[in-house]
Amino acid sequence: MFKCTCGGIMIVKEIEPYPPLTSQEKLSYDRKCTVECSTCKKIITGQKYD
After folding, report:
1. Are 45 and 32 spatial neighbours (Cβ–Cβ below 8 Å)?
2. What is the pLDDT of residues 15-38, one digit of tens each?
3. Where are the domains of the chain?
4. Residue-by-residue DSSP string for 8-41
């Protein structure tokens, strides 16, 4: 869980889907996500998800 600069909590809105990978490759693939602040509605993309 992340905190926004305003003090609100960042909520995950969208998670990058896996590209076509094997099960083993998926274990080491770092997906990104888009998060939104629950208070000020600021959106940040490219945050680490996995």
Report:
1. yes
2. 999 999 999 999 999 999 999 999
3. 2-48
4. PEEEEEEEPPPPS--HHHHHH---EEEEEETTT-
35 beta partners: 12, 44
Q: Measure the CA angle with vertex 32, ends 43 and 38; round to 5°.
A: 30
User: Residue 9 in contact with residue 38, Cβ under 8 Å?
Assistant: yes
Cα–Cα distance list, 22 to 19, 29, 49 (Å):
9, 10, 19
Q: Is 46 helix (H, G, I), strand (E, B) or coil?
A: strand
User: How far is residue 28's CA from residue 43's CA, in Å, rounded to a whole number?
Assistant: 26
pLDDT > 70 in the chain, percent: 98
